[in-house]
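TA notes, week 10

Several of you asked for a full example with nothing omitted. So below is the full record: structure tokens for the whole chain, then the designed sequence directly under it. When grading your own attempts, check the secondary structure regions first.
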């Protein structure tokens, strides 16, 4: 069997939806025969179940998990053991021995459904640019409910709601997004994983009125393209392909009917290939960020 563990520096990462890596273990005869680390590519809650399914994962070990993620994994036929912590290798050994206890759904961590935007890691379904705590009872990342927040790193602004303007450009100077152009500042809670990692860390020590320029390599933005997120299916299994050509962007849905963007890379009379990586995967990004408010 193949076991995946949400992974961070040797330990079980404590939030399924925000994990940047999985450690994959191949188990034969009741023992681990080999393992490797696989990037989640920043795809977020919606596509992680699909990513693991495409990697032929039989079981997942993780820390915190919400009901939506558990339902998606069950639909994908993946056994879940939530509530694990500590060393990842030891957790797998305990799982194989039948000694690891599954706590089931445990809303200790932020687990809303999300969609991507250029600057966000997650654009919340329960708010606009940021997540409104009044609509997120029990969501520690947003400050609601009775749980203690889990922060991704330390900083003066971590745990605070910040409002910023930004302009995003590629290394060739071309602009891909700007809140200035929409006259709509971006609000989010610093350090809770609502943003791509590099953007989030960049504002952690800013003061109101500060303007900074940051350069993010792909590892601190949307990660590198994941070959497991390029899939080929029979055309007959996909509806609404009239007029679609290679190079077009389309909207697909996962097993629970939740939409996500994909790029058509190849198609012939029988098959069609979709690249489901984030469109910014593999790209270095530059941001000019202006701090407007800190609350």
């Amino acid at each position: 069997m193949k076991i995946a563990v949400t992974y961070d520096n040797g330990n079980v990462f404590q939030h399924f939806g925000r994990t940047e890596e999985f450690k994959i273990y191949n188990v034969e005869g009741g023992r681990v025969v080999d393992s490797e680390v696989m990037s989640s590519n920043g795809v977020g809650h919606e596509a992680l179940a699909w990513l693991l399914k495409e990697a032929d994962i039989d079981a997942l070990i993780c820390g915190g998990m919400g009901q939506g993620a558990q339902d998606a994994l069950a639909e994908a036929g993946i056994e879940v053991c939530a509530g694990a912590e500590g060393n990842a290798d030891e957790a797998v050994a305990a799982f194989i021995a039948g000694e690891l206890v599954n706590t089931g759904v445990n809303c200790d961590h932020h687990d809303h459904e999300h969609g991507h935007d250029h600057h966000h890691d997650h654009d919340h379904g329960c708010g606009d640019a940021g997540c409104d705590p009044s609509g997120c009872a029990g969501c520690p990342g947003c400050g609601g409910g009775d749980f203690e927040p889990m922060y991704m790193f330390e900083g003066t602004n971590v745990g605070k709601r910040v409002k910023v303007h930004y302009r995003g450009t590629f290394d060739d100077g071309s602009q891909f997004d700007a809140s200035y152009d929409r006259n709509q500042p971006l609000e989010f809670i610093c350090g809770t994983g609502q943003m791509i990692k590099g953007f989030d860390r960049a504002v952690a020590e800013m003061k109101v009125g500060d303007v900074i320029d940051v350069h993010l390599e792909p590892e601190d933005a949307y990660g590198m393209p994941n070959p497991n997120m390029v899939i080929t299916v029979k055309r007959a299994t996909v509806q609404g392909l009239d007029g679609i050509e290679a190079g077009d962007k389309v909207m697909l849905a996962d097993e629970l009917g939740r939409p996500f963007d994909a790029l058509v890379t190849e198609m012939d009379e029988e098959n069609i290939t979709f690249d489901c990586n984030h469109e910014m995967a593999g790209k270095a990004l530059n941001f000019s960020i202006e701090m407007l408010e800190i609350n």
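DSSP finds five helices and 17 strands in the chain. Use that as a sanity check on your answer.
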